[in-house]
Amino acid sequence: MSEHTTDDGEADRLASDDAAAIRVAGLTRRFETGEGVETVFSGIDLEIAPGSFVVLIGKSGSGKSTLLDVISGVLEPSEGSVEFVPGDRDAAGNGRNSVEIGHVFQSPRLLPWDTAVENIEFVHENDPDYTDDLAREYLDLVGLSAHYEKFPGQLSGGQRQRVGIARALSIDPEVLLLDEPFSNLDEITADSLRRELLSVWRELGKTVLFVTHDITEAVQLADRILMLGDGEIYADLEVDLPRPRDVDSAEFVRFRGRAVERFHSIDGGEDGR
Amino acid sequence: MSSTTGPGRLLVENRQVVFLEALATAAAVWWLASAGFGLTDTLSSPPLVAAAVAELLASGEWVPQFAATGRRIAYGFAISTVLGTAFGLLMGLYGFWEKVFQDYITVGLAFPSVFIALFAAMAFGVGDTAPTVTAGIAPFPFVAQNVYQGVNNVDTDLLEMARSFEVSRTRTLGRVVFRSVLPEWFAGVRYGFAGAWKLVTLAEAIAAEQGVGFMIQTELTRLSMTGVLAWTVLFGAVIAVFEYLVLRRIEERVFDWREQSAVAW
Amino acid sequence: MAVEGARLRGGDLTDRWLPRAVGLGLTFVLWLGLATWFERTSPVSPIPYPVETLTAAADLYLTGAVFAHLLPTLSRIVVGFAGAMVLGTVAGVLMGTTAYGEKFLSPFVVLGLALPSVALAAMARLVWGFSFAAPTTAAAIAVSPFVAINVWKGVENLDRDRLEMARSFGVSNRRLLRRVLTPDVAPALFAASRFGVALSWKVVTVTEVFAAASGVGYRVNQARGSYQYLDAGAWVVAFMAVVVLVEYGAFKPLERRAFAHRDDEDVELTGAR
Ligand SMILES: Nc1ncnc2c1ncn2[C@@H]1O[C@H](COP(=O)(O)OP(=O)(O)O)[C@@H](O)[C@H]1O
Ligand SMILES: [Mg+2]
């Protein structure tokens, strides 16, 4: 399968004043379980450039979701710190003192009793400018123009995930965090959503941190791939392939092969046993 | 809802038709047993009961009795709903109170309600109070249990989502917790309602001078099976009408986001 | 920085027994308050004091007087409950396996659920007179619809995937019954019996008030008729001792085992009705 996106605005995108940098220092997270203390990861240092598309990859159970949740603030870190450095827009002082984060989950976590529009409205509590038109705009963006008033139960899995993405984008976040957003979908739906995500990213210029366990997906999407295992980032690869990327091209296959090799260079995680 | 409809299929597939078959079977067995064995005095019979119901309706005798019972049900139901919801929320939201009251729920669910009715009768004598108090207290553990479980079952994924989008606690309570608890709360409230009508009639049979339960008790002392059944049938009909016309309607409206109702009957 | 789960644990003492003690204390205070209030306001107080009542109840056991009414009640409960389990299981299996059975029996189940216990007691009395059969059939009729519903749901919810999995591995029927069907239906059956017993307590005691010349229900009503309120209270307490013993001695431990493999603990069915 090849990509048919037409992209030439990489330079513009990276210059976006709408994205924030992420600085992670000495990040450690432990859980107290019945048997004792489990350290999921420790001492992670990271610097993520504004506007970049970073993919975090790791085996199941390696701590990807935990790391993402600590970065997003859903979980407290046990040690270390997460810092968001606002882009120009915020430096210009338009009233915001914190960086907005849009979170997309593996299962989209929609309120089942609310329609698509209401689900988006839900996260706009303190937004005086919010109108349902805004929700509809973002639903249009993800291709759900015909489904504004549908309940999640009346949407397909892919459509539900689109609502989740529209919801995250609708708060105009500087940072977009996605936790295996496409892993529950069939490959065809996932592929078209991937392409849409890329074009939205190009258009809106967000800093993206995307979690997956799928190497092809990672190479297809990322500027930079981080590999998590044994409680640390054990590899940090720059993906210098030109966009749009053709997964069947020789250079893609070659890059993917190197990434796979690197990925399996350590044991650990559930399927590494 | 059969795709290939023939008269034979209708007889076994259509819910309404089968419902009538079930009723007819029950009436036939009853009638045969009472007429066939000459037990009309003990078992009464469908025509006798039908005639008695018609007479009650025609004479208007049923109105004051049903009014009294209905009033007590309404009060008792309100009490058990408020009490049950409060206790359920307390238990669902605070770990300490969950542990304090879990024994109350366990014992409360098994506590014979007739004892409550008897003590209410001793305490409040004949009148509205004893049936109301009985119907208010006895079913409340059921309501509390449901609300408590509803709160416990709130999807933590949704709560995390709300937190990640920095949605306030108030809004989360209203838009996530309240909405998740609603079905369980409603189920609990329906137990409360069923409990209310059963307990009010029970307490009326023990301590009242009016009401459906009192009338059943009166017919019992007259040893009239026809009388007991006539009041029971009439009462059942009124309750069924209320269930279908009021509670179902509310349920459908409140839960329209669900593709279909789970309870087939 | 908060470490999750780092909150101090005072062990079982504060975790489990303190709340229990508070609960018991609350009961005592509430009871005492009620007794005092009625003592003040009514000429003959209908609510006896807690310590007196507990002493009188203990006396009932010590002198053996309790058994004259406790044994008839318990034997009616056992027989009525057994009848309900048989009736309800047959009806529930018919409803779960055949469409016609479901449609034909549903009205009876609804009717059985809706029947006020006074009406049931009155009918039982008129048909059977003051006899062992009256409370027993009343209990069987009142309880069987609940059993039927639980069994019906249990049968309907049988995990077809698991059945097919077992078939495809050529698992024998006996093993299938023991290892798949029984654990699958056990929670529903357990829930049915748990609730069935609780309901049997209630229905048998109600019927004893109207249609028996022995039994705890009869005895409490008799004490009420002769204004012996302390006596009435003592009998209630003596009976509740048995209820508590069965609940905590038999059902709670069994429940923990029946639901051990389920983390979503569907306690909804274990007594909510
Ligand atoms: N709330 C929690 N309590 C205890 N352990 C947890 C908790 N959440 C995650 N873990 C543990 O942390 C590890 C990483 O989990 P997770 O971040 O979900 O992995 P991934 O998303 O990479 O599959 C797992 O071993 C898991 O058991
Ligand atoms: Mg994960």
Secondary structure layout plus pairing:
The complex is a heterotrimer of chains A (273), B (265) and C (273).
Chain A: H1 10-14, E1 21-33, E2 36-48, E3 53-58, H2 64-72, E4 79-85, H3 88-91, E5 101-104, H4 116-122, H5 132-141, H6 157-170, E6 175-179, H7 187-204, E7 207-212, H8 215-221, E8 224-229, E9 232-238, H9 250-263
Chain B: H1 7-13, H2 15-36, H3 40-43, H4 46-59, H5 62-93, H6 95-110, H7 113-124, H8 129-137, H9 140-152, H10 156-164, H11 169-206, H12 212-221, H13 225-254
Chain C: H1 11-41, H2 50-63, H3 67-97, H4 99-114, H5 117-128, H6 133-156, H7 160-168, H8 173-211, H9 216-225, H10 229-258
Helix pairs in contact in C: 2-10, 3-4, 3-6, 3-8, 3-9, 4-6, 5-6, 5-8, 6-8, 8-9, 8-10, 9-10
The complex binds adenosine-5'-diphosphate and magnesium ion.
Adenosine-5'-diphosphate (ADP) is lined by residues 31, 33, 38, 40, 58, 60-66 of chain A.
Domain ABC transmembrane type-1 (chain C): 70-248
Membrane topology (chain C): Multi-pass membrane protein
Organism (chain C): Halolamina salifodinae
Features:
heterotrimer; A: 273 residues; alpha/beta; Rossmann fold; 6-stranded mixed β-sheet; 3-stranded antiparallel β-sheet; 9 helices; 32% helix; disordered N terminus; C: 273 residues; mainly alpha; MetI-like fold; 2 domains; 10 helices; globular; disordered C terminus; binds adenosine-5'-diphosphate; binds magnesium ion; MetI-like_sf (chain B); transmembrane helix (chain B); transmembrane (chain B); MetI-like (chain B)
Structural summary, described in words:
The complex is a heterotrimer of chains A (273), B (265) and C (273). Chain A is of the alpha/beta class and 273 residues long. Helix content of chain A is 32%, strand content 25%. Chain A has one domain: Rossmann fold. In chain A, the strands form 2 sheets. A 6-stranded mixed beta sheet of chain A has the order 5-6-7-3-8-9, with helices on both faces. A 3-stranded antiparallel beta sheet of chain A has the order 2-1-4, covered by helices on one side. The longest helix of chain A has 18 residues. Chain B is globular. In chain B, helix 4 packs across helix 13. Chain B is mainly alpha-helical and 265 residues long. The longest helix of chain B has 38 residues. Chain B contains 13 helices and no strands. The longest helix of chain C is centred in the C-terminal third of the chain and has 39 residues. The interface between B and C is large, with 66 and 63 residues. The structure holds adenosine-5'-diphosphate and magnesium ion. Adenosine-5'-diphosphate binds next to strand 1, strand 2 and helix 2 of chain A. The site of adenosine-5'-diphosphate has 12 residues of chain A, from strand 1, strand 2 and helix 2. Chain B: It is found in: Cell membrane. Chain B: Keywords: Cell membrane, Membrane, Transmembrane, Transmembrane helix, Transport.
